[in-house]
Amino acid sequence: MSGGLAIVPAAALLVSANACAELITGTDADAQLPFWEWRAPGMSLRLVQRLPDQSRAFFLARGFSRADVELIAQACVFQTVFKNLSPPAAPAVIEYDLRDWVAQAGGQARGMKTREDWAEVWAERGVPQSARIAFEWALYPTHQTYHAGDYNWGMSVFDLAPGDSFDLVIHWNQGGERHTATLAGMRCAPDEDATAEATP
Amino acid sequence: MTMTSAEGLPGRLLYAFCCALLALASAPAAAEPAAAQALHPAQTPRLAPDFELPDLDGQLHKLSDYRGQVVVLNFWATWCPPCRAEMPSMQRGWEQVKDEGIVFLGVNVGEDADTVFLFLADYPVDFPLLFDAQAKVIEAYPVTGLPTTYIIDPAGRITHRAVGSREWDDTGLLDELRALRRAP
Description:
The complex is a heterodimer of chains A (200) and B (184).
Chain A: H1 10-13, E1 22-27, E2 34-40, E3 43-49, H2 52-60, H3 66-73, E4 76-84, E5 94-97, E6 102-105, E7 108-110, E8 112-113, H4 115-125, H5 129-138, E9 143-146, E10 151-158, E11 165-174, E12 177-187, H6 192-198
Antiparallel strand pairs in A: 1-2, 2-3, 3-4, 4-10, 5-9, 5-11, 6-7, 6-11, 8-10, 11-12
Chain B: H1 8-26, E1 40-47, E2 52-54, E3 60-62, E4 70-76, H2 81-97, E5 102-109, H3 113-122, E6 129-132, H4 136-140, E7 148-152, E8 157-163, H5 171-182
Parallel strand pairs in B: 4-5, 5-6
Antiparallel strand pairs in B: 1-8, 2-3, 4-7, 7-8
């Protein structure tokens, strides 16, 4: 192995990967919207707010009715990127399941709204198949296995309202070890349409 | 917010030192291939599910007709940012190996020919783009997120997978494809 692992002293190995993790927040350069990013050795998870109007535009263009689009716009949507950053010299498999993740808001714990949850909603509402296909693939995978260099990019939806604040508790397995982290102080993008309507 | 349990300045310094070393351990050495271009090898190569899909001109492409060649099978959509990001490098990679028995096939998921035609004005692509309008093929592989790319060897077996975009004109990555083409 020619990587840096060979020179890591035992003391460093006593510091767990999660202990070296950090939550970074700021404004995403591309979206110009707030982001929350959890960085730890070998992985990163970045969540960027998506405005309700962005959801409206995206899904109206893909065959959803205005009424159906409002179901998405009035939820809490983040653009999500989860990366396996482990190097070839020390590859680690990462697995997660969104059904394990919890949004804590107002003393309540809420699960995420996954592709499977939405599929039931769209089937009940008779949404066209082409729109359902676009929705399924636009949403973040419910569970995934990442090898070194792998990542996904997609929307994740929380059962919260625009403007709500919450703490997100995430779990993942990395190299056979279970990890947990809390992304505190997250906030759903506000609905500027609703804000404008409420303003006299 | 940085998570630390070390107390006092000496503890914090030791903590910072250890974290820096862990970060170093996670970083690739200069001589190693970048993880971002890694293809994950299948532990047990399996036969790729066969399919027949139309391209932009309505011409049908059957996967099994490409036996004897290496196939780079990319599932994508125009609205998917990493799919768009890797398309130019796929074109460049294809240009480099198209005469070496290596085929690139892009399988668009759930969109129509008009949408892809407009996309091609910004992202010119000359290798075949196929249409999986009902998302049946993508479910058969199965794929869980876009983009996902499978490498299929000349015997029709899936040998590698990449989830997320890659730089498909990366020399090391193209050499892996060439090695598959030459493998007995």
